[in-house]
Design goal:
Length: 253
């Protein structure tokens, strides 16, 4: 498949759940992203790739409403993030890279607070707290201050916060950052189980992770879309993801 290829298929198209429409972000004369356009349908797990500084985190922040685009639109489950911020937030779970946490709070206290802010009923909140404590393996540190937790445990608290309200859409920026191999495997298994009912956009630098959990790849470089295709397209004819990644991002030229 050629660069900027689009995944297609027969039959009626699933409902778009994540849409980037001409997203551009400028900081003075600096171009962070330019005209990034893609649509992710319901139930798909899509890898979002690119070298450091390519514009991945900027694009994710625009998709989630944390950053206003200079041009273009972002939609979550059909809700324009700029104009329907609250409606989009109801169906969206977001794990930012190095996401901020209240370090003096415990995971239990922080997640209870987040659930209350979201207006979750007491019964529903208890149910979801039990779910995320189990799925994110937080029971052993449930009552410890977040300031005392390792980077890996803090990452899992961030994942739990993204999952707490059972969103239809997940946007995850480096979800396995700081995790050991066993924890990384657990997060991958969790993503695979969630993919049965959710649409997931996953930013990662670990190409093995792409092959393990994703069916589609979107790659940007220098703020521009370079590839939109299958995992096999990223491997290329030589079936070497690393070599294909370097080719698409101009490494070594």
């Amino acid at each position: 498949m050629s660069e900027t290829a689009v995944v297609g298929g027969g039959g009626s198209a699933p409902r778009p759940m994540i849409e980037a429409i001409g997203l551009s972000k400028f900081y003075g004369s600096f171009l962070a992203t330019q005209n990034v356009t893609f649509s992710i349908p319901s139930g798909q797990v899509c890898a979002f790739l690119g070298p450091n500084g390519a514009g991945k985190s900027t694009t994710m922040k625009m998709l989630t409403g944390f950053l206003a685009p200079s041009e273009g639109r972002a939609l979550i489950a059909g809700h324009d993030v700029a104009n329907d911020r609250l409606q989009a937030a109801e169906v969206l779970g977001y794990l930012p890279e190095n996401g901020p946490l209240y370090l003096e709070m415990t995971p239990a206290g922080l997640l209870k607070f987040v659930g209350q802010v979201r207006g979750m009923s007491s019964a529903r909140l208890r149910e979801r707290l039990d779910f995320v404590a189990d799925k994110c393996s937080l029971k052993s540190v449930w009552g410890k201050p977040i300031s005392k937790l390792s980077k890996g445990f803090r990452q899992r608290v961030g994942m739990a916060q993204a999952l707490l309200h059972d969103p239809q859409v997940l946007i995850l920026d480096e979800p396995t950052s700081g995790l050991d191999p066993n924890q990384t495997h657990g997060v991958r298994e969790l993503i695979l189980s969630l993919s049965q009912s959710k649409t997931i956009l996953l930013s990662t630098h670990v190409l093995q992770e792409v092959k393990a959990v994703c069916s589609r790849v979107i790659l940007i470089n220098e703020g521009r879309l370079k590839l939109d295709g299958t995992v096999e397209d990223l491997e290329g004819s030589g079936h070497d993801m690393d070599a294909r990644f370097r080719q698409l991002t101009g490494a070594g030229r």
